[in-house]
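Hi R.,

Here are the chain sequences for the assembly we discussed:
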Amino acid sequence: MSEFLQQLLNGLSLGAIYALIALGYTMVYGVLRFINFAHSDVFMVGAFIGYYLGKLVPENTVWGGLVVLLAAMLGCALLGMIIERLAYRPLRGAATLNVLITAIGVSLLLEYSGQVFFGATPRTFPAVFPSANYAFGSLVISSNQILVIVVAALLMVALQLIVYRTKIGTAMRAVSLNPKAAQLVGVNNDVVISFTFGLGSALAGAGGILYALNYPSIDPLMGVMPGLKAFVAAVLGGIGNIPGAALGGLLLGTVETFVNGSQWSTYKDAIAFAILIIILLFRPAGLLGKFTVEKV
Amino acid sequence: MPKPHRYFLAALFIALGISHVSDKIDPYHLDVLTGIGINIILAVSLNLVNGFTGQFSLGHAGFMSVGAYAAAAFSLFVGPRLLGYAGGTAFQQGCLFFGALLTGGCFASLAGLLVGVPSLRLKGDYLALVTLGFGEIIRVIIQNVEFLGGALGLNGIPAYTTIFWVLAFVALSVFVVSCLVNSTYGRGFLATHDDEIASEAVGLNTTHYKIVAFVIGAFFAGTAGGLYGHFKMTITPTGFDFTKSVEIVVMVIMGGMGNTLGVILAAVLLTLLPELLRPIAEYRMIIYSLLLIVLMLVRPQGLFNFKLGKAKT
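And here is the predicted structure of the full complex:
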């Protein structure tokens, strides 16, 4: 029983990170209807911002950790907006496939530039937050796990508030529902899309720091696998659907952790996709997505 | 004899001719040419699925890996029983290799069928993701199969791939795909691509066309994998990951979806580009990715889409 709880906890903290990354995918998909492959590399850049900044702030302090976290979020938000401005905006209205290829191009660009500028060898992420282990019976909870879950929960609540309680959030939902109609009623689509990229990338940046705290070996290709799984999580929950992304992320993280702890651990990377395929076969629009029949 | 058949035969003779003078060609150039040929087969076969039928698949490398492993296993485990450990004559080896390639192609087709039947209910990005997922699942399964070498891969595959086989299979894939698409039956692929609902309304079984495209595409991906394995002599599961699938998709899109000639040119260019950029090795992938972005901004319809390969109506 305690082993089950332990695995559940590990799974939830991994799932919370997947959920943070998945939110960025799902928001961009919501407003632009394309898979932003570069998102996973924004996540990687977030971890590297944390790595370089972590050397400047005193280690093992809460405020130092928060500075690193916020700086990574800000840096990633800027990066996301720059990518959108330079690579995706000129393609507005082009075929989805072209945007997709551009996204792949941006992703490769970030990965290979990372390998040239950061170096391809893995680095050890500094312990920017103080860490301790708390034992409840045989259940061991590390402060990093609590941190991950708390930060992820706070960010998700904040996101929900932004999307449903602010003017720009209303505009985001309008663009997602119907971009042309939104423009007609006076929404500036470019601003909204840029904001969406900033918001999603900031979450990816936070995800990068949290991931690096729990798995403190970072390299320029570290984003590929978590990014792919987070995207699976977004689709699992129903892409374009914000609570769906959170649910998908938690579900995926939990299942993956349980598989990792079982005799099937070598199949860990396949399990995410297997779940995805099974769920899509029965619910083609994801768990929380609405299935719409195309009308002629 | 119809024109395409004549072209096909001519291409086979050219392949024979080139293979006769192959020992006079610089080995490095020969290697690059082999790489180009394998990429052409992959791109042309994916073009049938992505370009002509309009089903966005991101799992082509998965089918390639099934073919590579099946073909390699055939020549490693079945080969010695048929030819004896002496290795047999060149002709026997040729026949064995042909059999290995067909085995690879058939296994890949089978995988294509298994993937295609359930996933082709999905559309667009969802289909792309599921094919990507299948590609990854295939990779993880191969990693866990002991007799295929696991994560270390298969080593010591006989170097059967010669320039003749590569060129012959390039010719075969181009021949089959263009004849298929330009036939009366093949109009169904284009119809599925252009408007699925309208095609169904006039009585076309679009699911049937999608699956046929998938299976044939997978077959050639499998033979390309077989050629690749017997060229590199060693294969690892990680060599056929998501990045490889993306590389093939990029060739198809750059060539202009559904334009065979363009796709061939794109495959040639994208194989040559990393070789040409070799002197600035450190930055070559950065330049490659920048070129990709700039290309999509400047020529979104594909670099080589001059409406050359279009069939006459």
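Chain B touches chain A at residues 56, 118-119, 121-122, 124-126, 128-130, 132-134, 136-137, 139-141, 143-144, 197, 242, 246, 249-250, 253, 257, 282-283, 285-286, 288-290, 292-293, 296-297, 300 (CB under 8 Å). Chain B has one domain: 3-241.

Let me know if anything looks off.

Best,
T.
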